[in-house]
Amino acid sequence: MATFQLAINRKSYSVDVDPQTSLLTVLREHLDLTGSKYGCGEGQCGACTVLIDGKAQRSCITRVSSVSQKQITTIEGLASGDQLHPVQQAFLDVGAMQCAYCTSGMIMSAVALLDRNSNPQPDEIVSFMNGNVCRCGTYPRIVSAIQKAAKAKTAASAKGGSR
Amino acid sequence: MSAKSHLPIEPERYELRASPPYHFDLDRREFFKFLGAGLVVVSVLKPAAIAQESGGARRRGESLPQEIDAWLHIGDNGRVTVYTGKVEIGQNIRTSLSQAVAEELRVPLENIDVVMGDTQLTPFDMGTFGSRTTPTMNLQLRKVASAARDVLIGLAAEQWKADRQTLRAADGKVTDPRANRSVEYAALMKGQQLTEVLPAEDPLIPAPDWSVAGKSIPKVDGRDFVTGKHRYPSDQKLPDMLYGKVLRPPAFDATLVSVDTQKAEQIGATVVHDGNFVGAAAPTSQLAEAAVAAIHAEWKSEPQISNKELFDYLRKNTAEGKDPTGDGDRFDTGSVDQALSSADHKLQATYTVAYIAHTPLEPRAALAKWDGDQVTVWTGTQRPFGVRGQLAEAFRIPEEHVRVMMPDMGSGYGGKHTGETAIEAARLARAAKRPVKVVWTREEEFTWSYFRPAGVIDVTGGVKNDGTLTAWEFHNYNSGSAGIRTYYEVPNQRIVFHPVKSPLRQGSYRALAATANHFARESHMDELAHAVKMDPLEFRLKNLKNERLRAVFEAAAKQFGWGKSKSAGQGFGMGGGYEKLGNIATFAEVHADRKSGEVKIVRVVSAFECGAIVNPDGLRNQIEGSNVQGLGGALFEAIEFDNGKILNGRLSQYRVPRFRDVPAIETVLLDRKDLPSAGAGECPLIGLAPAIANAIFDATGVRLRALPLIPNGLKSIA
């Protein structure tokens, strides 16, 4: 067991766990941040995706010992108060979900994509998102939602918005 | 505890018992204890009617009480609470049922809460399967809401001494347009406790007049899902909760020879060994895993077949006469043998489908807590009342001592009809005397749940030179009887479902055997069309009288541009049918490169009709989703197994559809406001596989008769 200081959603946490423990287990079991989901345990489905220093990472195959000192963002930290992130809002507007178990991971991956490419083409979205699985089959809607979010973000920054 | 022997699955059979035996044991006083003041709408089932029900929901050894179901409550704060045993698994019925209630009760959607799948609070329900929610529960709740509206108008009429015919209900109020006055529903209650028994007949608002139903209302609690706030079954937590893990046998149907749990106990876990069940509970999941890993067990198992021998096995191991229902699995008309021998063209072909896994993204999960001899379980299941029964049976306690709750879950697709994790968590919790949560790993979900049945289908068709079908013989081994009957006009038919003792545990899967049966039928229709050199659409329509089915074929053909010319490597095909009260026709465009072996699904067009549409966008979502999910079973999903083990039970080994697999998808909705609304969760799945198979034939001249069609590309079969 060892103690790790974690910076999650702009808050500081201290956890006492085995260094081999996955970040996903720490989030869900120790910190009760259950928005990140378990889907496969081998980084194949993307349901557990979080941002680590802004990059989309699979928290189920990320050891907690590797992420102290880093900025971690989970789905719970995306909205600012009542104000949803443009990607969250776009998923709602488009209805880009059914059971929505994949939604947290999809949104986190999409946020990472739009942070490095503000205007992705459909094939770029497909290529970036291909590691995220939606068993209900809402992929076409997710692509639309990401395009919509890209437009909303661009419009907001043109207006001088912070996002 | 072999899952196979203790928790039998009945593929197909759930669908046959459409009418649920409603069941609720509280009396009127108890209702209001938890409902509070206000108006409650109930339905009462007379003892005689209950006695005739064959379902197992009745209380054992007790005289039959008058059974009362509470469906809807309007509190004196104006909140409307609706109670249904149906559950939300991604099909968005929390939204569509809210729309139904808002429509008839004339209240804003925001005022409605829907309590779903809680065995203590909701009326008995067989389960959420068979696309039954829209045709049955939507209708039921509309009736209930309509009855409540009538009561409220009556109360207002009484208060105002007005003629009720002149009063209107809208926006949570009763208004009197003549006297220019209105009163909120909540104010009409005046702290009273009112009970209204659902009348047998009550006119409902016709579909053309709908204002809330029939609209694309977004998911009612969507915000909770995009913020991560919603708690799925696997997210549930209680103070002092332990995590549970179960020791799995190395092969199916293995029996435990010896077990040593000493090391596991030393780790600090609660270890349970009860018959074939061995499991551990500990304060963290890691500790529980370590404890199970420290258990030394020896198992004994019998040799079992592999997927390579599967289809031969299915043919040779029929269990004729053992069909538990004994109904409707054989259909004969005319003289098939004679018609086949005199047909201008006769064609015989065999089609096969593999076992596939539902792979719901959320694996099975349950949290169990005991209070004395009463157990409460939160679990992901399509059958909360079924799981209640399983728990009662497993622990030999009355069903009244079991409460099962179903938080909206990470889907099921027919794969979560059973309560494995509920029983496991409850067994460990009883030993640990603390709440225990069990969440299956992906590997456990692949191995210890159940599969869509594999099957072999032999079809022989006879046709005249002019394209008239004359004979149809159809034998389905194991995959199931859903959708087995043909909707084409054929005077001579022999259609038989042959049950088989399945080598793997199998059960319901979205659309059941309708996928396999439509694949075989619609492929064979395509083969017959080519045999008589007719256009496949023309051939179908020549032999099809059903107007609703004709309409979807024609609508999809128009949108697709059927009859257009094609380029090299391009192929067009179609498949369609009637299932679960819905009608689908799907057209596919593929591009096949025989040199590289790559087949790309370029475009899919579906036309669908299921009566009056309750939520157009929700419906589109279901149809698109069916076509995307259906790509897996059509193209590459197949469970590989050998000697009681699953060989590809991980997401890195079992390929499911991903973003890159998705073609352009277009959906045409036919809204029949003159027809009752039906469900759409399953039917749209059935057209895709034959449409793709027929398009691949069109592109390459290669006829593929096995699902999945191209697990390794086209090269493997070219």
What percentage of amino acids of chain A are in beta strands?
15-25%
- Helical proportion of chain A? 25-40%
Shape-level CATH architecture of the largest domain in chain B: 2-Layer Sandwich
Poorly predicted parts of chain A? none
Query: What's the CATH architecture of the largest domain in chain A?
Result: Roll
User: Strand pairing plus helix content of chain B: what structural class?
Assistant: alpha+beta
Can you tell me the overall shape of chain B? Answer: globular
Sheet with the most strands: spatial strand order of chain A: 2-1-5-3-4
Mean pLDDT of chain B: 91
Helix content of chain B: 25-40%
Rg of chain A is: 16 Å
Q: Helical stretch count of chain B? A: 19
Quaternary structure state of the chains depicted: heterodimer
Order of helices and strands of chain A: EEHEEEHHHH
What is the fold named in CATH at topology level of the largest domain in chain B?
Aldehyde Oxidoreductase, domain 4
**Mind telling me the CATH class of the largest domain in chain B?**
Alpha Beta
Biggest β-sheet strands, sense, barrel of chain B: 7 strands, mixed
- Considering the protein shown, what is the CATH homologous superfamily of the largest domain in chain A? Beta-grasp domain
- Average pLDDT score of chain A: 96
Major pleated sheet of chain A = 5 strands, mixed
Number of domains of chain B: 3
